[in-house]
């Protein structure tokens, strides 16, 4: 029965590897071409690895410092992109923000003002309905 082998070194050539910040979707080609490794857990692809799969955690391949750094950078870029997309969406939804420069404090302030306006309008509509003898279900009240 073959013994567990230490993990092979990853190639430094960026054209031989691909990266995705989504856990489990990134793979890196290895020198022997026989195994792939995700950013979160190893993937068993050979009979040699299958027999070593039951080996303790200490034998699992670990991310290198550079891989950890790359993961962190990609996660941060993804987080910033999500924030940017959220602000862009707000500028589309809130009147008066179209075509302005993207000052996040202005976007937030105008969004809060717009929401207060909409809540006031809703209360006024509910009051109008009730003044005319209608009934508004409690689940529709702010």
TrEMBL record:
Location, primary (coarse class): nucleus
Pfam families reported in the protein's UniProt record: HLH
GO CC annotation: nucleus
Biased amino acid composition, Low complexity: 10-25
Keywords: DNA-binding, Nucleus, Transcription, Transcription regulation
Basic and acidic residues biased stretches: 56-80
SMART domains documented for this protein: HLH (SM00353)
Region (Disordered): 1-80
KW Transmembrane (keyword) present: no
Keyword Nucleus carried by entry: yes
InterPro entries hit by this protein: bHLH_dom, HLH_DNA-bd_sf, Max-like/E-box_TFs
Places the protein is found: Nucleus
Xref: PROSITE patterns: BHLH
Signal peptide residue numbers: none
SUPFAM superfamilies listed in its UniProt record: HLH, helix-loop-helix DNA-binding domain
GO MF, one example: DNA-binding transcription factor activity, RNA polymerase II-specific
Domain BHLH: 67-118
Compositional bias segments (type: Polar residues): 39-50
PANTHER family (alphabetical): BASIC HELIX-LOOP-HELIX ZIP TRANSCRIPTION FACTOR (PTHR15741), BHLH TRANSCRIPTION FACTOR (EUROFUNG) (PTHR15741:SF39)
Protein name: Helix-loop-helix DNA-binding domain-containing protein
Lineage, highest ranks first: Eukaryota, Fungi, Dikarya, Ascomycota, Pezizomycotina
